[in-house]
Amino acid sequence: MGRSQHYLWQMALTLHQGGLITHVTQKVIQQASDELRRLFSHEDMEGEWTVYEVLNVLSLFIAEEPNHCVWYDGERIYDDEDYAHLMQEYADATVGEWIPENLSSARSYEEGGKECDIIDFDFRGIHFHWEFNASGSDWVDPAFLDLVEQFSRTYLEGEFFEVPTHDQTACFYYLPHRTVASLIIIMEQIEQHFANFDAFVEALD
Predict the structure, then answer these.
(1) Are 204 and 2 in contact (CB under 8 A)?
(2) Are 21 and 62 in contact (CB under 8 A)?
(3) What is the pLDDT of residues 173-194, one digit of tens each?
(4) Which residues contact 83 (CB under 8 A, 6 or more apart)?
C-alpha cells in the first residue's frame, strides 16, 4: 500500500467514526485513489496542491442519510428572512440536536445609512440575539459564519467543518468535535509530507 493510501485510510476511517461514511473498504480506498488520479490528469489540476482535494474525493462516499451536509450558493441573501432560512439549514444538518425555536431574521436601518442584520432564536430555554453589520452585499457575511461556529463549539456536540469548493457555493459537514480535530491533524500531516498534488498522487502506488 502506498503512503498516500495510508492517509486515505486514516481520513476515511475518521469520517466513518464521525458517522459520515457507512463502510470503509479497500474498494472504497481504491475508487478514491482512481478519482485522485483522474483529477491529477486534468489539465487544470496538474501541479496544484490542496489537501482538500483528498477530502472532496472521500466525500463521494458519504451516506446521503442522515444528511449532515449544508451546501448552498454563497450569494443568497436577498430578503430579511434569508438568514433565518440559512440558519435552519445548518440546524437541520445536526439531525435534531439543534432545534432553533422562534427563529427570525431581519435587517435594520439606522441613522447615517448603517445597516445591521439581526437573528433571534431560542435554544434549550436560552434566547439568542445576534447582530452584525450588514455589508449590503447579497453574499453570506463572514460574521454570520463566525457566530454559527462560536455557537456550535459552545452549545453543540459537533461543529461545521468547511470543505472548499471550486465555485461560489459553500459546503459544510456537521461532525463531532473530536472528528474535526482528528481530520485537521491528518490534513496537516499530509501537507507536511507531500509538497504538491503530483507527489501525493504518485505515492498512491
Answers:
(1) yes
(2) yes
(3) 999 999 999 999 999 999 899 8
(4) 77, 105, 117, 119, 144
Q: What is the pLDDT of residues 39-50, one digit of tens each?
A: 777 655 544 556
From the CB of residue 83, how many other CB atoms can be counted at a distance below 10 Å? Answer: 25
Exposed (0-12), middle (13-18) or buried (19+): which is 9, by Cβ within 10 Å? middle
In whole angstroms, give the CA distance from residue 71 to residue 133.
24
How many Å apart are CA 120 and CA 202, to the nearest integer? 51
C-alpha cell at 49: 496542491
CA distances to 6, 123, 145, 158 from 154, rounded to whole Å, are 33, 12, 14, 9
First to last CA, the chain: 7
* The residue to which cell 474535526 is assigned: 180
Q: What distance in Å separates the CA atoms of residue 36 and residue 56, rounded to the nearest whole number?
A: 10
How many whole angstroms separate alpha carbon 101 and alpha carbon 74?
25
Q: How far apart are CA 104 and CA 100, in angstroms?
A: 10
